[in-house]
Design brief:
One of its GO terms (molecular function) is phosphoribosylanthranilate isomerase activity. The chain is an alpha/beta fold. The protein has a single domain, classed as Alpha-Beta Barrel (TIM Barrel). 32% of the residues lie in helices and 20% in strands. It has an eight-stranded parallel β-barrel with strand order 1-2-3-4-5-6-7-8. Helix 1 packs parallel to helix 7 and helix 6 runs parallel beside helix 7.
Length: 210
């Protein structure tokens, strides 16, 4: 099965279009003000308004209030919510929107147990752990920690780039991969050449797997 791709941390319409033109299945919009890749609701609505059909839009939140979620969902067409904080399954479900749960790969993480806790999630996004940083560390983690039984539920993130995505897909065989900093020229500004190179790496891995 073809590995799906999300390009996250989109802040400009031209970057969203570059991702889609290169073959990405989804874009990610960060609704977390401390992030250098954060967008306002107004910015997000403009980006989404210009998208062509059949592109999934993922909204990334970190421990949001219900009011924050309600406001964003009322003004921006989001297909999926990515909860990237300490949310419980009940909190995620209360959004009323399909969701994925981000997991920061601390040394003591039990992925099989978390998969049971978040059985209602569409998938688990695995990101590198760095104390005090919800995500976007630019670092990889030990991919061998991922149980093979969960591969179809896994969105692999954390330090992916055009240089290592092919190897990552071969080793993990995830349902999808997620990249942000690995295809940037500056925080929040995508490098269109790197996006194309990343997508070529995904395509090579898929051909070789087939």
């Amino acid at each position: 099965m073809r590995t799906r791709v999300k390009i996250c941390g989109i802040t400009r319409t031209e970057d969203a279009m570059a991702a889609i033109t290169a073959g990405a299945d989804a874009i990610g919009l960060v609704f977390y003000p401390p992030s250098p890749r954060a967008v306002t609701i107004t910015q997000a609505a403009q980006i989404v308004k210009d998208l062509p059909p059949f592109v999934s839009v993922v909204g990334l939140f970190v421990n949001p209030t219900q009011d924050e979620l309600t406001e964003a969902l009322a003004q921006v067409r989001l297909d999926l919510i990515q909860f990237h904080g300490d949310e419980t399954a009940q909190m995620c479900e209360a959004s009323g929107c399909p969701y994925i749960k981000a997991v920061r790969m601390r040394p003591d993480v039990d992925l099989l147990d978390l998969d049971k806790q978040f059985a209602s999630a569409s998938g688990l996004l695995l990101d590198s752990y760095q104390k005090g940083t919800p995500g976007g560390t630019g670092e990889t983690f030990e991919w061998q920690r991922i149980p093979s039984s969960l591969r179809e539920r896994i969105i692999l993130a954390g330090g992916l780039s055009p240089d290592n995505v092919e190897s990552a897909i071969h080793q993990v065989k995830p349902y999808a991969v997620d990249v942000s900093g690995g295809v940037e020229q500056a925080k929040g500004i995508k490098d269109h050449t790197k996006i194309k190179a990343f997508m070529r790496g995904v395509e090579r891995a898929n051909r070789e797997t087939d």
